[in-house]
Design goal:
Length: 360
């Protein structure tokens, strides 16, 4: 063996031992690092999986997370409701969640809150691959959405991640280090501390927690625009096609719910007027396409046009997230449709008188 070859072996062995040592150290810190793990795809679904099944499940992304208020549905129908809205999720995530959660028991009704952005043409289900997919789900995605290296990579990262804890928990490690460097990086330490406090906050029994109800982020879009336009993030105009995989996936979701004996209703979650003006060439097409899919699948669709639900920029916490009063208005509107269409078992329909007593 040459001297150079021996040196390479020593270097490789040293590197391997260093990685093994770092991996063991991170495994030992797992409890500390978990304090920085958001785990949205575990927290809310575990409430449903480990408790009694809510009779009404409200599904969607962060738009539905803010816009669909469980207590409005409960007040109207007399049935328990749970907000399963998860930030960043779209139709494939909703399909995968519904398959996993509604096996042993099922709700009477699923309310799907949707927006044009959630049926965009360039959607790639990386969140589903990273957090929810089985191998069969991955193959199904390749069939529907096409082969995507980002989706396959997200799945492999999730599947193989625990083999290398340093890589698997790299984000939590960064947050852990940031908080301990508060004297040098105070802003970064604050970010880490706020994340840890958020993770430590128990999930509300209803799954719903609006920032305005908690005294947070109280300035509306209109107020922020008047103060400094640059502080308001402009939601990008989504690419849209009636033939996009997201549209066929929406039909699949509604068809699978119906086949499982679960009724569904789809509610359009509006954007603020500032966004609607920017999306005017795309959003109406998306709304019409969503309505068409609902008709074909036999699911009622509840639009929220400006004429039906009056709103201004003052009614929004962000361009795509509704404020609490508007959320209650949208939820009451959806609940009225549920009752009018008789989507729940007959014994709950007496509740229609309750919602008629609540002003818009």
């Amino acid at each position: 063996m040459t001297e150079n070859a021996g040196r390479r072996i020593i270097l490789m062995a040293s590197a391997a031992l260093t990685l093994i040592g770092a991996d063991a150290l991170v495994r030992g810190m797992r409890a500390e690092l978990t304090a920085y793990t958001v785990a949205d795809y575990n927290r809310k679904p575990s409430v449903i999986a480990n408790g009694p099944m809510p009779r009404i499940v409200l599904m969607g992304s962060s738009r539905a997370k803010y816009a669909l208020v469980p207590d409005e549905f409960e007040r109207a129908t007399g049935r328990s409701a749970y907000n399963l809205g998860i930030a960043g999720s779209k139709v494939v995530e909703w399909i995968t969640l519904s398959r996993a959660l509604f096996k042993a028991d099922r709700p009477d009704l699923v309310v799907v809150g949707i927006n044009a952005s959630e049926v965009r043409l360039d959607y790639s289900p990386t969140d589903a691959a990273r957090n929810l997919f089985t191998l069969d789900d991955l193959f199904e995605s390749c069939s529907h959405e096409g082969v995507s290296t980002s989706v396959i990579g997200a799945y492999l990262q999730s599947a193989a991640g625990p083999l290398c804890e340093v890589y698997h928990h790299r984000y939590e490690l960064r947050m852990w280090a940031q908080e301990r460097l508060g004297g040098v990086l105070p802003k970064h330490a604050q970010q880490a501390r706020e994340l840890r406090e958020r993770v430590a906050t128990p999930e509300p029994p209803s799954g719903y927690a609006h920032p305005w109800a908690q005294g947070e982020q109280l300035r509306s879009v209109e107020e922020r625009l008047l103060n400094n336009v640059a502080t308001v993030e402009a939601a990008c105009v989504p690419l849209f096609s009636r033939d996009s995989p997201s549209m066929s996936r929406l039909a699949q979701l509604l068809d699978e719910l119906r086949a499982g004996g679960i009724r569904a209703i789809v509610v359009y979650i509006p954007n603020c007027p500032r966004t609607e003006a920017r999306w005017r060439d795309v959003e109406p097409q998306a709304i019409n396409a969503i309505a068409s899919v609902c008709r074909e699948s036999g699911a009622p669709f509840v639009p929220c046009s400006q004429e039906e639900v009056s709103r201004t920029n003052r009614d929004f916490i962000e361009e795509v997230h509704v404020g609490l009063p508007l959320a209650r208005t949208i939820s009451r509107r959806a609940a009225r449709q549920i009752l009018a269409l008789g989507l729940l078992p007959i014994e709950t329909r007496h509740a229609v008188t309750k919602i008629n007593d609540v002003p818009d």
